[in-house]
């Protein structure tokens, strides 16, 4: 189906508020979102975004009239389509939907919802499942990166039940292995080309290992790094200072004016307390993450492996690929290796993670009527 000129209506006279749209609600990693086939949404971005806001119930701090869960981690959308790129199965576009604002952003991707893309592609018939295990090659449209998701399939169906636990999610589910990268040379990890920059009198490290992040020493803000997300969010002076640093970091990272963007993410780092490599508190950017995002963890893990960066001296960096990143909800095991390439600088030579996902419902969603 394709969009008509009117906001949200699609071909054949279908009006989503009346007829509904095919939609699957899935938990991917420690996030939750609405998954759509691209053909079931308007092709024109402004019309698509207007419809997505109606689906999620934004703008409203409770999102009471839509699917959103009143938090950035549950106000997300994944749009999936067959890929025309050789060697790639599906394309994945991520949309971050504002909760109390009428804003839809494609400036970043989401590694948590990425965990559900492979299973969704099988559920919708875009990929033929193999007996035992299925691998899906995914192009992340927001960033241009590629990933391979591998997960259990049996009798032509995705297996969601399993024994894999991830911190931040109750219970267990089937493991989904996600390896980032593929053809082509990896991009430099340090967008500014420096291990340390100074922004507004504060030492920072700018890293992009799949998600743009700014690494900061919690002690430079008079913090231990063990503060709760609620306490950090309530500190107006802290949040204002972090936002000022974030806005200045955007151009240095090649992101331009980030006033209306949700990147870069801001990380307060401190020495590990629970046997991990580093302790983190992540501003995403205005709320504090109760755990950590997949690609955020990959960027942090890569950053602390680079000598002289903010965080390197604080960290207990292990041998091998595994980097256990502590967060408010537990520990995330990022699998990252870094090498210094002549003429390029530090790059991630290997980046992978283990996630889970679960299908919550599959049916039709009825967006709020147009105003």
TrEMBL record:
Superkingdom of the source species: Bacteria
GO MF entry, a single one: isomerase activity
EC number from the UniProt entry: 5.3.2.8
Pfam families according to UniProt: PrpF
Keywords: Isomerase
Similarity comment: Belongs to the PrpF family.
The protein, known as: 4-oxalomesaconate tautomerase
